[in-house]
Structures are given as structure tokens and as C-alpha cells.
Amino acid sequence: MKNRRITYILLGLLLVLGLFLTFKNLSNNYLWQDEGESAVYGRNIIKYGYPRAFDGTNLLKAYLSTFGENYESKFHPWLHFYLISLSHIALGINTFSSRLPFAICGFLSIIIIFFLAKRFFKKDSIALLSVLFISTSIPFILHVRQCRYYGLQVFLVLAIMWIYLNILEKRKGHLWTLGFLLCALYYTNHGAFMPVFGTICIHFFWFNKEKALRKKFIFMCIAVVLVALPWAIYSSISPQYLAVLKPMVLKKNLGFQIRVLNKYIFPLFFFAALYVFRSIKNKDWRISVHKDDKAGLKLILLFIAINLCFYTIAEQRTIRYYVHIFPFLYILQAWIFVRFFSKKKILAGALAAVFIFTNIAHNSLPYLLEAGMPSKSPEERKELIKEVDFYLLEYIYEITHDYDGPIEGTVEFLRQHAKPGDRVKIAYGDASLIFYLPHLKIDNDHFFNKKDFPEWIVWRDYWINEYKSYHKDYAHQILSGYDEEYVREIKKRYIAHEIPYPDIIWENRPDDLEYHKFRTVRGVRNVIIYERRDL
């Protein structure tokens, strides 16, 4: 009883930490482009009843798909848009209400992880460590704070796994709950649905031999497929999102996943090195697993393996698509800690601190070892040591200080100076402006192909110049090259306003911690907004 009380006290403290890191200053950063698109769809549901790209004034730009006849979204499933809309209705249409539902889902996911890890391995220590790792995971926190489907996706996957364990334990009344949650996941993110559904099916038929339950399970799966079928037919899903099935392409995709997950989530290479060191020291290469741990370990490893295989075939090399895998990697990491370091508590504590506060185990250890070589000069050592990052401390700074980005500056300037009905031409960030400035006409001419002269032009330097040079994938959208004559005409006809906000690529985004800005960027070009002179 005493141990249980201590466990739940520690859990409470960890949840307070998770609450702080998840919700603190949630609305400080303005919505960046992808978030702005989701928020606009959510807002338009209030008026039209469905996620409509055209609100009567402004039209979201279709990058990866086309719209339906009534401007309805055909790329992303709609469930998360309705969640945003409900939040807008309850709390008003703003940054905070747009992000709140997904932050709540993320926090609920942290709670579920404790009980899920405990069901997998029957140990409070593993459950508490799992919560500690996920609560302090900056990639996880950044994603669930987004006005995007990520938080909802993680919550649904964890809920699916919880209900599936109930089914394995022969608890009645959970089969159709599982089917409902699978359908909800499909209509949140059909990409994540595929490996999750595949894992559940493969694991069930592999380990369950009860014929009566198998029949009910098959019937449930058929029902899920039938519910999913309308969207599969209607949406713009196409083979273009699958990788070319060539060994080099598949190797590239798999390599990306391993690198990015190792770098930010689960230090695979570090654990592999520890395993080799331990095996050589003990002259034993076997890994003994307690019989009570085997079932949970098999399910977790199968889940991770099937997801890695799926995203090797799917042509989506971005960490955002793997966010639902993070909790299972952290549970596995917690199991490794308890299994191999339970008798070395000081070492385990020190190593956990390294994992939580730095990227040494994940990425920068080789740089530190190189910096220690006698042949390195002081300047070289200094550059190598810079590879050590303290993401948690940097993130705490971010959520306790104000952050200024290009979208915030542009929105605030135009709110003060633009008149209702004015046209605004912007190279990137149009979805965000459509959300924040519905009284203006936003032109999403990303590459400035149209040589027109609206009331306002927001000059985003990277997207106009460098984007053309470095991103050949978008060459089909560029109708003409950089037109110096058009630029000279703009400078002749317009008044240039330089606002004190950095003209960086994105307002902020969670995908790559090497890009993510934990504080306002200084020492770069500022955003320039051109105001047309009165004729």
C-alpha cells in the first residue's frame, strides 16, 4: 500500500510537469502555414458544416490534392477539423482554441502511457520512467501543441492498444469499441491507420487461437474496412505517395527513419554500443527476458517493426508521421533502463538525466569523443562541442518568454494598417493570414508569377528567391523566373515598411529540432511589407 501511494505521488508530480510543458504559453507562437490551414477548415465548418477551403473571400491553396466540387478538403480526413471547430465554438476563434484540443489529447496520452506500460510489464518503475521520458520529450510536446492531428492521432493509437489488450484478456464488450476507435483513427490520419490496423490484425491472428473470437474479430475488421471505404474512394489518396519500389529508395526511406528516431527519440546506436560492451564484458551475447515481459515486448516490437516497414514504402520522410510511435519507443526505453540498470541506480539516474536534458546519447557523443582527440585545435573542439544540445532547457526558455516570428509581425502590421477588402499578396504564410485576417483578400501566389500590384505585398525573401533554387520538386509551379523588372516596379510603386520581425522560413514548426526556434531569431533580415502608393 505504501509503495502504491509513493507511485501515485510520483505520477502526480510527473503529470504536473507534463501539464506545464504541454499547456504553458500555448498561444504565444502564431499558427504557421499548416496549422493555419487546419484552423481555417475548422472555422469554415461553423459556417458551412464541412471543411471548406473557400470561405466566400479567400481560398486555401491545394498543394497535394484537389478540392471537391464544393471546395471540400479531399486530402486530410475530416475528424480533427471538427474537433477544431468544436473548440472554436466553445472558446472563440483564436490561436489558443485552435491548439487546445490537441494539447489535451497529448496530455491524456501521457496518462494512458503510465497505465499501458504497467499493463505491458507489470512494473511501476517502468510505467513511471515511461511517463518521465514522454513528458520531457520535446519532439512529442512540440507536436501535440500543434493545431494539427498529431495529438489526436497519438491518443487514439494508445486507446486502441489499451482496448486491444482488453480483448486479448477476453474481457467482453470491447470488440466494437476497438472497431470504433480504428474508424476514428482512419478519419484522423489514414496513413497512421494502415500500420496500426495491420499490427492489430497480425498480432491477433498470430497469438489468438480461439475460433469464436476470431470470427467476431474478422466481422469487426470487415465493418471497419466498409466504414473506411467511402473516404478511400472519394479522397485524393494516390500511388504518388508510395515510394518507388527500388532497393536504393527503400533503403533511403528506412535509413531516414532510423536516423531521425535515433537522433531525437530512441538512441538505438547508443543502446547497441552498450549491448556490445556488456556482452563482451560478460562473454555472453544472450538477452534474458522475464517471462512476464515477453508478451508486452513482442507486441511493442511488432508495432514498431510494422510501422517502420510501412513508412519505408510510403514516401513521407518527415518525423511528424511517426509521432504515434514515440510512446512505444519510450516504453521500450524505460524497460531497457529497468532491465539492465535496476541494480545500478546511480548510473541509471545519471544516464536518465543525460537522456532527458541533452542529446549526448542520441547524437552528439561521437562529436564529444572527436573533440577529445589530441589532434584537434581549440577552434575545432569548440565547433564539435556545439553539437551538444539541451532541448528541454531551451524549450522551457521558449514557453516562458515571448517569441516573435514573421507571421505575427505581418498579421499585427496589417491589422493596424490595412483596410477591409484590401488585397494582400504573400509568398508564403497565406493560410495563416486567411485565418487571422478574414476581412482581407489574401492572394496565395507563392512564387510571384502574376505580375500584379495589389494594395499590399508581403516580401518573404526565402520563398521568392531561394525556394526556386533549392526545391526542384516545385519547379512545375514556377511559370517564370525571378523578374527583376517586376521587382523594380514594386519598389517604384510601393512604400517599403521594414517591421522588426525576422524573415525566417517558417513562423515555427516542430518537425526538425535543428530548425525549430526556441527563441526569437536575431541578426537576420527583417520582414518587408510593401504598401502601394496612392495613385
Give the SSE map.
Layout: H1 2-23, H2 33-48, H3 79-91, H4 95-121, H5 124-135, H6 138-144, H7 150-168, H8 175-186, H9 190-207, H10 211-234, H11 247-264, H12 268-282, H13 291-313, H14 326-341, H15 345-357, H16 360-371, H17 378-385, H18 391-399, H19 406-417, E1 423-426, H20 430-436, E2 441-443, E3 456-459, H21 461-470, H22 484-493, E4 494-502, E5 526-532
SS summary, helix count: 22
Return Rg in Å: 25 Å
**Distance between the amino and carboxyl termini:** 81 Å
What is the residue-averaged pLDDT? Answer: 88
- Give the strand line-up of the largest sheet: 2-1-3-5-4
Tell me the total number of β-strands. Answer: 5
Q: Give helix % range.
A: 55-70%
The amount of beta strand, in percent, is 5-15%
The secondary-structure class comes to mainly alpha
Low-confidence stretches: 470-474
Order of helices and strands: HHHHHHHHHHHHHHHHHHHEHEEHHEE
Given the C-alpha coordinates, what overall shape results? globular
Question: Biggest sheet: strands, sense, closure?
Answer: 5 strands, mixed
What does this 3D model show about the protein?
Helix 16 runs antiparallel to helix 17 (378-385). Strand 1 (423-426), helix 20 and strand 2 form a beta-alpha-beta unit. Strands 2-1-3-5-4 form a five-stranded mixed β-sheet. It has helices spanning 2-23, 33-48, 79-91, 95-121, 124-135, 138-144, 150-168, 175-186, 190-207, 211-234, 247-264, 268-282, 291-313, 326-341, 345-357, 360-371, 378-385, 391-399, 406-417, 430-436, 461-470, 484-493, and strands at 423-426, 441-443, 456-459, 494-502, 526-532. It is built from 22 helices and five strands. It is 60% helix and 5% strand. With 535 residues, it is mostly helical.
